[in-house]
């Protein structure tokens, strides 16, 4: 039988319980949270801390509860957040087993204890903050900007309504990384496979009628790993908090590579 050895200090252990003085866990108007805690600098195992959140003093979203915990109970809790409107993608994390944005995840949508982890299969900087250095480098590698050879027009690059409509479902990506970190192919090959988010961004510029480097962009993607590790599992489309479909974008890129050979 095959035996696997987990890395040192990888086992998640039971952590500290933080209770309210005026309310007990399970009381009406409270929710129990179990939050992943990890500090790579202290050499300790990651742990799951328990918090009792006072709903009478807290907003309805999961991010509201995390901010309440940090401000009221445990100032050492670390997480990213910015816009609180589902626009910046900073507060992406795994909530109740699903990658999503904490600012748009309503506590009422989760039954029982709310369990929160960082985005999966990424190095953890601390607590709920993943290291997305590789993710952002992959996004940069698809050169997500307009590339032209024609002389720059005096006013603007023009598009028809039909040409502009081709960008719908692509430009809305907020680079939260929910899709890529839900993809098994990305888990195992993130050093070479670009992942759903970067490939969605690549398709956004491939179909842009103003861009004049389509062939160069396709050449950059025609690789057994950069593009073809996608096996259409569809986790990316399910996880996307903006309801986009990276799997379709990847299929469209594959189709474009075939069509140019015909």
Structure commentary:
The protein has 262 residues and is of the alpha/beta class. Helices cover 27% and strands 15% of the residues. The protein contains eight helices and eight strands; from the N terminus they run E-E-E-H-E-E-E-E-E-H-H-H-H-H-H-H. The protein has helices spanning 62-73, 133-141, 161-165, 184-189, 195-206, 214-221, 235-239, 246-259; strands at 13-18, 30-37, 47-54, 92-95, 98-101, 114-117, 124-126, 129-130. A six-stranded mixed β-sheet has the order 1-3-2-6-4-5, with helices on one face. Strand 4 and strand 5 (98-101) form a beta hairpin. Helix 5 crosses helix 8 (246-259). The termini are far apart. The relative contact order is 0.11. The mean pLDDT is 93.
Comma- or semicolon-separated keywords:
262 residues; alpha/beta; 8 helices; 8 strands; 15% strand
Summarize the structure.
This protein is α/β, with parallel strands linked by helices and 262 residues long. Helices cover 27% and strands 15% of the residues. It has helices at residues 62-73, 133-141, 161-165, 184-189, 195-206, 214-221, 235-239, 246-259; strands at 13-18, 30-37, 47-54, 92-95, 98-101, 114-117, 124-126, 129-130.
Q: Which geometry do the CA atoms define?
A: elongated
- Helix percent reads 25-40%
Radius of gyration: 22 Å
Share of β-strand residues = 5-15%
User: What does the main sheet amount to?
Assistant: 6 strands, mixed
Q: Which series of helices and strands comes N to C?
A: EEEHEEEEEHHHHHHH
Low-confidence stretches: none
Order of the strands making up the biggest sheet? 1-3-2-6-4-5
Straight-line N-to-C gap:
49 Å
Mean pLDDT: 93
Structural class assignment: alpha/beta
Discrete helix count: 8
Count the beta strands.
8
């Amino acid at each position: 039988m095959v035996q696997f050895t987990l890395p040192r200090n990888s086992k998640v252990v039971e952590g500290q319980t933080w209770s309210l003085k005026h309310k007990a866990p399970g009381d009406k108007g409270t929710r129990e949270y179990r939050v992943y805690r990890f500090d790579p600098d202290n050499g300790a195992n990651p742990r799951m801390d328990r918090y009792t959140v006072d709903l009478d003093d807290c907003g309805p979203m999961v991010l509201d509860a995390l901010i309440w915990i940090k401000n009221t109970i445990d100032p050492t809790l670390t997480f990213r957040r910015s816009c609180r409107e589902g626009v910046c993608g900073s507060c992406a994390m795994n909530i109740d087993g699903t990658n999503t944005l904490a600012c748009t995840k309503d506590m009422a949508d989760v039954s029982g204890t709310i369990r929160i982890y960082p985005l999966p299969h990424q190095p953890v900087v601390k607590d709920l903050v993943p290291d997305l250095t590789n993710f952002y480098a992959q996004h940069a590698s698809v050169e997500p900007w307009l590339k032209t050879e024609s002389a720059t027009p005096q006013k603007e690059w023009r598009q028809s309504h039909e040409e502009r409509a081709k960008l719908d479902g692509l430009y809305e990506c907020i680079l939260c990384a929910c899709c890529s970190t839900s993809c098994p192919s990305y888990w195992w090959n993130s050093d070479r496979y670009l992942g759903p988010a970067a490939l969605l961004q690549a398709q956004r510029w491939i179909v842009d009628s103003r861009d004049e480097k389509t062939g160069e962009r396709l050449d950059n993607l025609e690789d057994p790993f950069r593009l073809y590790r996608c096996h259409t599992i569809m986790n990316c489309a399910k996880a996307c908090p903006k309801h986009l479909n990276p799997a379709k974008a990847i299929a469209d890129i594959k189709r474009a590579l075939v069509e140019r050979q015909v």
